[in-house]
């Protein structure tokens, strides 16, 4: 069945219209942003501290130019200009996130910040007036710092209930404004960088252990939010809900069985760890087996990968109305011998070598290479792995060096 495809890219800072001659009439263009990245006003009008506020204020060297979330694009005050830009370049969708601490300053649902509600109401009204539909993410990595301090954040299952409470508040407050909801954005980055390597907020290190605990709680929290919408709001509001999962594409270096298996393994640890429980049920078998075997060799009585109960598997499976995915870059993959048994490590659980070809065009940054062919390969893999599920590309694009649209890209 043919369905409309939505592609979301970065919001351009210039007023250039898309050339619609290259796309079918039902193709939908949008831009993707996040509250922490664009709103600013980090402590204004009742908003409280997030884990990224704390992380960057205490670790300014983690950002190359020492910029902070304090002002950024100042969209809290300039949202009308942002929506005008979106309209000027011909967008019909705008993906954004709600800041948990702007709506619930304590992190709990017992105190709603009306100033925060008013801001988002005005933003949604501005979109509607300009013919732009919002796609709203509930959690884009900006957990209330108070919940990190009290519970240890996404390493504590209690936070899944608090997230569900927050989701219910947003579903009720904005039921007349939003029809497309995204629960959590890119849990891989949140769990791996935030709680595994410590390279991102909240800066907790526990590679090979914390990623799996975080992943379990993330998909459980997502499922709780989904069921709340399904049971309490869908009949009246007729909206749609999903979770945004990202990965690079991983291309086998050769057609050898070892390289093909290694590439599939990397995809499962990056995408399947979060997608499999939602789209198929339970963890991917390769992750269950590898982490379980390595845990046993490490002398542990149970796997570092926390098991789901049968009830949890059923509760999480099928909690989507469409598949939301982010893609930016590709990598080559070579097989390598399993890492020696030692301290737990997420990369050792995967045991594969990844690299990028020097011939691939680079972009205005270090983390993206211009490999559009990887997107097609990724979409084909999704169809092969999960079947005929409607796919929405919720982020994609490159940081261009030229500043013009008519170039080799």
Structure description:
There is one protein chain. Helix 3 runs parallel beside helix 5 (114-129) and helix 7 (158-173) packs parallel to helix 9. A hairpin with a 1-residue loop joins strand 11 and strand 12 (365-369). This protein has 15 helices and 13 strands. The strands form 3 sheets. The chain has an 8-stranded parallel beta sheet. Strands 7-9-10 form a 3-stranded mixed beta sheet. Mean pLDDT is 94; it is low at 1-5 and 10-16. Helix content is 42%, strand content 16%. The protein has helices at residues 35-38, 51-58, 75-88, 100-103, 114-129, 145-151, 158-173, 187-197, 210-232, 234-237, 257-279, 285-297, 310-316, 346-350, 372-386, and strands at residues 6-9, 28-32, 93-97, 133-139, 180-185, 240-246, 249-252, 323-326, 330-335, 352-355, 362-363, 365-369, 391-395. The protein is globular, with a radius of gyration of 21 Å. GO terms for molecular function: beta-glucosidase activity. It holds the Pfam family Glyco_hydro_1. Keywords: Glycosidase, Hydrolase, Signal. Residues 1-17 form the signal peptide.
Features:
single chain, 409 residues, alpha/beta, TIM Barrel, 3-stranded mixed sheet, 15 helices, 16% strand
Which secondary structure elements does this structure contain, and how are they paired or packed?
Elements: E1 6-9, E2 28-32, H1 35-38, H2 51-58, H3 75-88, E3 93-97, H4 100-103, H5 114-129, E4 133-139, H6 145-151, H7 158-173, E5 180-185, H8 187-197, H9 210-232, H10 234-237, E6 240-246, E7 249-252, H11 257-279, H12 285-297, H13 310-316, E8 323-326, E9 330-335, H14 346-350, E10 352-355, E11 362-363, E12 365-369, H15 372-386, E13 391-395
Parallel strand pairs: 1-2, 2-3, 3-4, 4-5, 5-6, 6-8, 7-9, 8-13
Antiparallel strand pairs: 9-10, 11-12
